[in-house]
Structure formats: structure tokens, C-alpha cells
Amino acid sequence: MKYMLIMRATDEATAAYEEMDFNEIIAAMGAYNESLMKAGVLLAGEGLTDAAEGFVVDFDSTPPVVTDGPYAEAKELFNGFWIIQVSSKEEAAEWAKRCPLGPGTRLEVRRVTELEDFPQDNEWIQKEAGWREELEHKAGTNG
Amino acid sequence: MNETDAPGTVDAPNTDVADRARRTVAAVWRIESARIVATLTRFVGDVGQAEDLAQEALVEALKQWPDEGVPRNPGAWLTAVAKRRAIDGWRRRERLDERYAAMARDLEQRGGEASDMFWDPDTIDDDILRLIFVSCHPVLSREAQIALTLRIVGGLSSDEIARAFLVPTATIQQRIVRAKKTLAAAKVPFEVPKPNEYTERLGSVLSVLYLIFNEGYLPASGEQWVRPDVSGEALRLARVVAGLMPKEPEAQSLVALMEFTASRFAARTARDGTPIPLDQQDRSRWDRAQIARGSAALARADRIGRGRASYGLQAAIAECHAVAPTASDTDWARIALLYEALGRLAPSPVVELNRAVAVAMSTGPASALRIVDELAVGGKLAGYAPLPAVRGELLARLGRNDEARAELELAARLTGNERERAALLAKAAALEASVE
């Protein structure tokens, strides 16, 4: 089963991180990522740039409203993620606990859906599978 | 020493807490067991004894963690407990020589603070590699290699291995006990093989992993929920091995082959469990992210620049299928060439039959039939349903319907798969009598 480790940090924690030695952070994260890779469990992972570079598309109104980041209402910012493949929820928890993060940060751990999680005879599920393939195909021919 | 087992039954007043602790212990064990056993083997010199000690530490964890909580560094805790056990054992046998005395001093100086005493990052990778080579050592039978690899390197319990292979737990326990004895009796050194035997020993490691992977590839049965994902475990271990041997193209290629094969898992069976042949699978259910990982692994293998051997060629064939939008849009000419290369490397009638299918798709039925006829004359595939199935298909495409029907009916009699039997008979029935 696959789990996504979603990293969130409060503004204070993000600010505190900026005070820290950047090389130290990189080294600690690098070691953590390496341990995931060496264990053969890491499938994907990305870190995100400053929230100020991002924007929000809000669906409270129609058409949706686009607002520049950072987002006034968010208490915690989503900063990056890992996807790992493990044999149990507890194993995902063990890996998450080893992440070199400090106070004010947290990892939300969520299981990634697999095809089997959906009713296979639903017409929309089948259509979505078709769209996914079409998108992949297009991406393949463009790239 | 008795065969103890990973997370099993421990009586505790609060089953809920105990159950959670047991699951945590199992998870820690999955993550740490290879490093713990590798570290202990370096100290005690024998894989079997190291594994026994680690198992004793695990039992200790099951007793203590439910009450005292999981230590901050559980892997170090387990290692320290196991080392203490080793020293106690030597003390009892009054064989406390200088080496063990040093170990004991080391432990005592650090007191109970296990979290600072951890494996040496400079040597642990090499130790894990040694552990993998020892688990797949040629003095062991294939079955013993598989059980020991899953147990020691993968961190699975005997019970989990037994469920994966659908055999009684006692059988697996016996295999492991015997394997440890065999290794000790043969005085198998804890080392990476010497250059003159390296390729062969690496081949043994990779084939053990591939066998484990294929065991899990068996179609899902009704009891799949209790059957551990052993293919996933084989893939994980293959990634570990590939990471430890970045310069071995076949290790990278095996990862690629497994990724491509596993990408089709969701599409490989019908809802009633019958296998669906590749050309009829719903390709929208193939895992695209997994295919991308397979291509990345194959590219890593190719970048090493030592050409492609068996797993490399098989992975390349699997990639041709994985990236093709439909069965007919597949690069069959390339697949035919890859099978030809594979056949030159290790001649096999099954590879030759697969080449014939690719030739039929790329060049046409007449040239493919010449290959298949030769195989039929050779007799090595007698009783193998795919041979008459392919031959029948080719004859039908050439309009030789009477011969085709006979071949398809023969294939239908030989196959063990009901769905395939029905398809073959339907195909045979649809053929009109040959026009003379």
C-alpha cells in the first residue's frame, strides 16, 4: 500500500526555519530521503517553493476566484510531500516519525487510493480511466 | 537456540494497547531487521546466531514496549538488547575473550542509553550486501534461499512467509532452521563474493528475488486479504539491491522488469479471477507512474554502458508493451529483435515461441509459421498449450482452416484455463472449412 506524507508548517515554524543553517536542513533531509531510497520504499517526493509564488483558486463563487498567495486564512502551509510504498499503516507511521522536522511542523499521513478502492462498474470511474490514458498518451506524444 | 518468531502472541492485560505495540514492533522490524542482523553478524560472525539473537530482542520488545512505550530509536534498542544477550551467552559459557570483553565494556560505558549507539553508516551498506549474498548462498537450496531472504533481509515472519507461499508455518520454520545450520556447517564467510564468482553469485541473488516476485504475481485468490504482498516485497528488495549495486546493470534491469510487470497487476485478471492475456487487457488500468519508474530504472541500467543481459532484454520487451497504446500499435519488430537477442543469450523454446508471435505481428504469419514448425518438430514444447494455440492462429491467418481448427482444438484440450479454453474453441468454431 502507498501512503503520502504531507508536510505542513505554521508561519512561525517556516520563519524559524529561515533562521536555521540551510545546509544543515538540506543535509538532514538528504539523509532522510536517502534512508527511504535505500529501504526501497520511496516512490516519489517533491518540495514546494515559497507560498508567495503560488496562488489560490477559490470555488466559493462561480466562476472561481484566483487570489495570489500566501493565503491569509491558512494556519499551516503545505510545503512538500513523499509517497512511500509500505506493508502497513504502522510502517508508514514509523517512517513518518523519522522525518527530521521540528516544532510547528507536522506530517499528515494519508493512504493513496488504488483502483480497487473504487466500485469498478461505475461509469464515471471507467471514463476517468479512459481520460487518464488519453492524457498520458497526449503527454507522451508532446514530450 | 529455539526458533522464536517475529511479532506473535504475547499475553497482555490490555489487548488493544498490546495489539498496537505488536503492530509497531512488526513495522520497526520490517524497517530495521536487515540492519540489525547485519550488525549482529559482524559481531558474532554467524548469520544464524545473529538472527536468533535479533529474534530474542524482538520478543523482549514485545514484552516491554506495550508498557514502556516505543523507544526513540527502536532499531538501536533492539540491537543493544541482542548484543547484551550475546554477551550473556558468552559469559555463561565462560568464553569471554578480549573481543567480547571490549564489546561488553562498550555497552556498559554507554549504559542504557541505546539511542546513541547505532550502526556505523560507513559499513552498514556493505554489511547488508554481505547479508543478502549469504542468504542466497549456493550451499542452500532455492527454497531455503527464498525463505531466508524474506526472513532476514525482508523482515517477514515465518508465518507471513508461509501465508505468502501457501505452506504451513512449520515448514518455513524448518527451512529456516535448516538453512542456518547449513550456513554454519559450511562455515560460509560473511563477505561479498570474490571477483571470480561475483557474476554467478549476483545471478543467484537476482533470481531469488525474481522467483519471490513471480510467486506473488499469481492471480489474486479469495483469500488474498490474508496473503502478504510478496511481489511488492520482492520489488522493494530489488530496489535495495539495485541501490547497493549502482554499477550492476542486471540489478537495475530487474527493478525495471518488476516495475513493468507490476504495472499491469490491476488489469491482469477478470473479476472472477481468470487471467486476461496481455493483448486483451484494459490498458487504462495499467499503472502509468509505475511504468515511468520502470523506464527510469532501465535507463539507469543502460547508462552503465555494459549492454543488456537477460533481465535487461526482458525489461526492454516489457517496456515495449507498457508504452504501446494498443496491442496492434506495439513495436513488434523491436520485440522480435529483443527475443532474438534473448534466445542467443540463453536458448529456450519458450523464448523462441514468443519471438514467433512478435514476428507474426511485425512481418506476417508465413515467416512466423516457419519458426513454430521447427519448434513443433523439435518436440521440446510437447503438451505446452501455447504452441498449438499460436500455430493454429498462424494457420488461420494463412487460410489453412482445417489444420488451424485441429491445432486450436488441441490447444483447448491442453490449457488449464477455462476462459482461454472457451476462447480457443470459439475461434476454432468460427473457422470455415478450407477452400481447396
UniProtKB/TrEMBL annotation, chain A:
Similarity section: Belongs to the YciI family.
Q: Which domain of life is it from?
A: Bacteria
Q: Which residues cross the membrane?
A: none
Q: Which residues form the YCII-related domain?
A: 1-114
Protein's name in the database? YciI family protein
Cite the InterPro entries for this sequence.
Dimeric_a/b-barrel, YCII
Pfam families named among the record's database cross-references: YCII
UniProtKB/TrEMBL annotation, chain B:
Question: InterPro entries in the record, alphabetically?
Answer: DUF6596, RNA_pol_sigma-70_dom, RNA_pol_sigma70_ECF_CS, RNA_pol_sigma70_r2, RNA_pol_sigma70_r4_t2, RNA_pol_sigma_r2, RNA_pol_sigma_r3/r4-like, WH-like_DNA-bd_sf
Asked whether the keyword Transcription is assigned, the reply is: yes
Q: Which domain of life is it from?
A: Bacteria
Q: Which residues form the RNA polymerase sigma-70 region domain?
A: 35-95
The UniProt entry, under SUPFAM superfamilies, shows: Sigma2 domain of RNA polymerase sigma factors, Sigma3 and sigma4 domains of RNA polymerase sigma factors
The RNA polymerase sigma factor 70 region 4 type domain covers: 133-183
Is the keyword Transit peptide in the record? no
PROSITE patterns in the cross-refs: SIGMA70_ECF
Ranges for the DUF6596 domain? 201-301
Sorted keywords for this record are: DNA-binding, Sigma factor, Transcription, Transcription regulation
UniProt cross-references to NCBIfam families, sorted A to Z: sigma70-ECF
Family listed: Belongs to the sigma-70 factor family. ECF subfamily.
Q: What is this protein called?
A: RNA polymerase sigma factor
